[in-house]
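Late entry, written up from scratch paper. The run itself happened at the end of the previous shift, but nothing got recorded in the book at the time, so transcribing now.
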Amino acid sequence: MQETIHQLALGFTHLLTLSHAASLVVGLVVGMLVAVLPGLTLVMGVVLALPFTYGMDVTSSIILLTAMYLSGTYGGAFTSILFRIPGEPLDVPLLWDGYPMARKGQPAQALGWVLLAVFWGGLITCVSAVVLAVPFAKFALRFDSPEYFAVVLLGLSGVVALGGGSLAKALISLCIGLMLATVGVDDTYGVDRFTFGVPILKDGIEYLTVMVGAYGLGEVLTRMEQGFVSPTMDSGGRVETRLPRWRDVWELRPTIGRSSLIGIICGIVPGAGATVGSFVAYGIENQYGKRRAQLGSGIPEGIVAPQVASTATVGGHMVPLLALGIPGSGATAVILGAFLLHGVQPGPQIFQTEAAMVYTIFASMFAAVFGMCLLGYFAIKPLIRVLQLPEAVTSAFVALFCFVGAYSARNSLTDLWMIVIFGVVGYLFERFRFPIAPMVLGIILGPIAETSFMTSMIAYQNDWTVFFTRPIAGTFMAFTILALAYPMYRQLRSAWRATRPATRRLQPGK
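Output as recorded:
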């Protein structure tokens, strides 16, 4: 523990450099704006910022994206409470009590409770990341190639199982991403795969163009089809933040404790994340809260529970990302992409080879918590004015950033065409309700899974049972099977219950 505290203190000193501090400030401001602006999402904002990190060092890049990730979990609270417009899916439970409290003439109190929840959830997320990352990394040092393949497979299956919607569509999206990851020269045998004689495809398909095109340009095309409808907003008077009294905060300590634990767990579990944590925390409060009968009428518990949980998931996501190299959400998948763009592979060795970078990132998370709270407290009025921007103007800037970011990566016109192609793919995915996250994670984790699988086959004489006979790998494989089997069972049960009444009516004598 003393070594961890020493490294963290050194991380704070490294954070004082101009490049790192500037990245932190820019990340906080941009993340807050992305969460507030209509038509943008947190993942889209992080994706759009990724190409601009090419000219930065790896530490500054991760600080920028992580600060955006943290502040993005806070910015959507303003629109949810004041205008009943959730900036992200994770903000939906927040408006169930936040908006009624604002309608009762207490918007300042509602924003104060959110600020308190963000501060506490942010501290929890930072402490959990620092405390849990090193034990995770020490545990991961026992991994061999079969274990790495099993844990990557678990990460992929977790996103599919917990992504919601149709399991079949999620699997199709994942398979498309894995197929895109195989384009290019095979690392094991050195042969061309799916290049079709096109020279540019020998280098493979950049996952950057897939992410920026599918998330950024695809969303612009979707909103263009919808006609860029921007809702009329009226804050209903003076907008400010009023912090709650300590006595009122102390009464909510069971809610804060439960939600903090839920957030950490949902962050560590692959595929869960802030949205799942927010809904689960609100549901737990609805079942076990002291004032559960009043939920939905505008009480602090309904604001604090989802916000603490959603913010606390960030640190949980950083633990498997740094210790195992496995992202647990769309935003951490982009952060993993930033690591790979700079030639850094997260994993257990990173705490030995890049300890200064890791603890500087941890220190930036602590600083980001205080920074986004100050930003949210003092900059509430300018942030709300940003909402007056027409959605068409916002979408135009998004499209511009997509093309500029893609072209600046390799100065290649081919990447611009790739952006257009995957923008259309993203639009079609949204149109036919296919999730994009499995495809993105497939193209990022696909090469890692393939390399681990081929290495295992070579090292263990093509014995595929090694993935099940080794204790750690077998445990991960069992969790993978459960992660895939449970949603299949749930869908089959729902289909059976839906057809059961009709079957009964057809039976004679019923």
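The radius of gyration is 23 Å.
(Scratch paper discarded after transcription.)
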